Structures are given as C-alpha cells and as structure tokens.
Amino acid sequence: MTQTLIILHTNDIHGNVEGLARIATLVAQVKAEDPDTPVFYFDCGDVEEPSSRLSNVTKGTAMHRLLNAAGCDAAVAGNGAWLRYGPQVLAEHGAAARYPLLAANLRTHAGDPLAGVQPAVLLQAGSLRLGVIGVTTDMPEYTAFFNLQAVPTAPLVRELAAALRQDGADAVVVLSHLGLAADRELAADLQEDVVAILGGHSHDLLPEGERIGRVFVAQAGQYAGHVGRLDLAWDDEQAMVTAAAALPVPETMPPSATVLAEAQAIEAAGVQFLAEIIGELAESLDFATDRECAAGNLMADVLQERMGGQVAVTTGGHAFIGPLPGGPVSRGALWEVCTSTANPAVVTMTGAQLAALVAKGLDLTFAAERPHTLRGNARGLIHLSGATVRGGQLLVGGEPVEPGREYLVAGSDWEFESYGGYVERAWDLRPRYEVPTILREALEEYLATHRPVRVQMGRLG
After folding, report:
1. What structural domains and CATH numbers belong to the chain?
2. Alpha-carbon distance 220 to 211, whole Å?
3. What local confidence, expressed as pLDDT, does residue 339 receive?
4. Predicted model pTM
C-alpha cells in the first residue's frame, strides 16, 4: 500500500508578519483539501528580520511564536538571527518554538551543539516515519567572530541520515539554509542518503523544483511570496517525490486570525516595556546620510566612552535610520530608529589606517551606497568622537594624525571587518568585541546615565 505525504516549505520570510499570516491560511487550506493525507509544514530559515519592528524588538523570538501559530512542524535556524544578535539568541528561539529548531553543522568551539537547536528529528506521518536534518550556512568570518565552528556538511548529513534510518526513518529530508548552489553540491554528494533538500538563504524560486540524480532540490523564493509543495510517496520500500510546485501566496488571501492574534498579543506584552522612559535629549537628534548629523555623533560618543578609545568612528546610516525628538526618550522610540545589531569594538590601528578609514567613510559616493546588508538604507557618512576633520585633514585630540603612530579606536564590526568596506583585510586588524551587546543596548545604557544628553556638532569641518 502506498502512503502519501505532503510537505509544505517556506524560507526567508524576513519578518513579514502579514505574509506569514497568509501562509498559515494556505497551509490550513492544503490540510483541509485532503484530510486523510498527512501534511508537514517546514521553514528553511531567516524568518527573523531586524528591520521588522515586531521581530527586532524581540530579537527574532516573536517570529518563532508566529511560526507556532502557523502550524510549523520543524525549522532550520538561518544565519540572520545569530549573526546579528549572537548565537546565544538561538536558546530563546528554541524555547519559544513548539517545533524542533534544527542546526546540525554549527557547533561551539568545543564541538557541542548550540543551545536551543538540535541536529535532527524523527517525525511520524501516518505509517511513514520521516527523518529531518537541519543545516545552515557557516559564514566563516562570523563563525570565527563568535568562536564557533562548522562541521563539514555532507559527511555529517550522511552520518545523521544513517542514524535516523537506524531509528526507523523510512525517508530523510534536509532543511537547508546553505543557498541553492550549496544545496546542488550537497544533493550530488547524498544520492543514497536523502530524498530531498528544501532550501533557503539564496532567495531562489524554483517553480517546480529540480532533480539532481535521485535527490530533489526545492526553494520557495522570499518574503512570504510563495509556499513550496512536495508530494512524497512511500511504497513500503522507497520514498520518492511525485510532484512539486511553488504555490503563490496572493495578497488577497485572508490572513490567519490565529497568527494575527498572536502578533497582537506579543505587541501588547511589549507595550509597557517599550513605553519606559530611558533617558532625555537636551535637543532633537537630526539624522542625515549626506552630511554630519547629531544621531551619528551621539553613537560615536557612546562608543568612545564605552570602549575607552582615543577616537571613535561610526557609520551614520548603520547606527541610525532616523531622527529622535528632544526631551524624554522612550525605549520604543529609540528602538524604532536604532535597528543596528552591530557589536561595540575597539582596535589598535596606525594613523595611516585610521586616516584611510575616515577618508573612505567621508566619500559621498560611497556614503550614498545602499548595500543589501543595510536593507536598502544608505550607508551615510562616517562620524567621529575624539577627532575632527579640518580642511580635509584628520585631527586627533586637536593634533594632525601621525601615520606611523598607533591609536586605540572604538567602533563596531561594521567599521572594523572587511565586509563593511572600510578596512582592508590585509591590515589584519584584531578588534576586541563586546558580545552579545549591540549598539542599541549600548546607547540605551548611555542615555540612562547622561541626563540630559547633549551632542556637539561641527566635527567634520
């Protein structure tokens, strides 16, 4: 007798609450169409998003509560949350999730699984037992930053698949947040080990999926625009994918009342927390990306004091996305305009390196760029504390910077790692980071101890 199973999958929802609510409706519709056929709903990572308010104020935890409401059966941890908030946030996500949160290949430096996640799970679907393994992108620069390690994926999945089959799994699928190119390579390596790889991270939409030998690879686009569907058949000897599709999620689809109610409950619980007054500004903080602004200067002051630098540098459009009015400042108002998840840092660099960093940061063309990392916001100019620019010359403590001298410079990983675009990898900087503190938290503490806050202008001449 043949057993059939429907697998629905999403990826890279990135904080789209309304979209997830519509996905929940679609999932419920598929289940209602054939109540005798088991249906699993899996998410393939990056449901969180720092530029989405509900996700940001909960460091992504809210989105896992919404996946609960949407009927998620298992999910793989994407890179978005641990990359921005540190790997310790996965413990909060795992505690909130009523489904297994998976990440087999990402480990502590000692080789232990990260708190909040597990490598794999065995699920029952009628007479079919389905093994599910989760793997996520390792991003070497960041794993080193957080003192993590990534286990080679193909041998690990092969080992886990064998263990799942020994425990009774009839078929094994992989939930991947590696990206399509890596999924294709993995499929070629796992011909005898898994039936399908459901992917994310690269935001690809595969309308009918694709077969790589005996392994089916699928991915459902981005931002809750589609739900992937696989029909799986099991004949008591082998499982195979018999059909695949990417189901559109139209904006006219009614959102799930259950998901929206959960979102409202999360919002309500945070009202008092966000309404708390955490500080006071003597004057309004203006914000701009093409000139010096008070918001950028304030963050530079925060970093210099916190990290003990002779100088501090911060990118205006990375530290803030908007202004703040003068007077009392609520936590919610701050969190609306300070969405950065960068970590405070301090590093020793030469005067020549510092001058090059500042020159790059004051280039108007470079400042106008809108990198994907900043979700389409402009970089903005570099801002300084403990230093000024006069007539195109960088001054530290009122004196011209000395190219051969070493300076202790405060900033964040955005300014000090090569992915920000301000430093050269060849400089081999070794910043000291304050993890898991993020810029917003550092600024909140500063506001609490400096009342009212005054910001000096005129630093960029």
Report:
1. 3-269 (3.60.21.10), 276-449 (3.90.780.10)
2. 15
3. 87
4. 0.80
